[in-house]
């Protein structure tokens, strides 16, 4: 098993954000967490990547307990987090943003090779290589944030709301690229408001409601569930 989350409880002060959730990701899977705003999806990703400490529970990555491991160490172990809202470095160029993503890699030739791999997935970034991140369009910034996340050669990519604020045509493009990244061997945990798109590319899905996992199954089973259709798919 690549990642196991076991009975995770997370608090923000007195607010109980995650109520003992458990789920897993196998090697090579795309797993999606769907749910309304405030359900605990981003909190889950932030806890896995070490940005939030859980009150109790365990996060096991490749058989190793990483629950209390510092975030920079988690990146070195092969987990990369592309945060909600992109959080690119606006005053830096596209190249510099990508180099920041590879800060754990000391070999310059390896950094250049990884950058070329990112440009293969996102040719538009290559055209904008010397442009400042803050001057890119929303879609290009999302591509840059995702590309930066790939620069540390992750085995597991945590993607938080990659389609937020993008036009339908760009959403399709981003999701095609996510599928392609997965096909190249990277496992993905995807948090996404656009449940329909998320379920169309995921292998399995979990539905989060107010910090609890209320449903789980294959993406097809979840997409066909009447409760999910009514709440998240507008059917």
What does this structure look like?
The chain is of the alpha/beta class and 235 residues long. The chain folds into two domains: 1-78 and 155-165 and 187-235, P-loop containing nucleotide triphosphate hydrolases (Rossmann fold), CATH 3.40.50.300; 85-153, no CATH class. 39% of the residues lie in helices and 26% in strands. It has helices spanning 41-48, 71-77, 94-101, 108-121, 123-127, 138-150, 168-183, 195-201, 219-224, 226-232; strands at residues 3-12, 15-25, 30-34, 56-61, 64-65, 79-82, 156-160, 187-191, 204-209, 212-218. Helix 3 packs parallel to helix 6 (138-150). It is globular and about 45 Å long. The two termini are 34 Å apart. The model has no long low-confidence stretch (mean pLDDT 95).
List the helices and strands and how they pair.
Blueprint: E1 3-12, E2 15-25, E3 30-34, H1 41-48, E4 56-61, E5 64-65, H2 71-77, E6 79-82, H3 94-101, H4 108-121, H5 123-127, H6 138-150, E7 156-160, H7 168-183, E8 187-191, H8 195-201, E9 204-209, E10 212-218, H9 219-224, H10 226-232
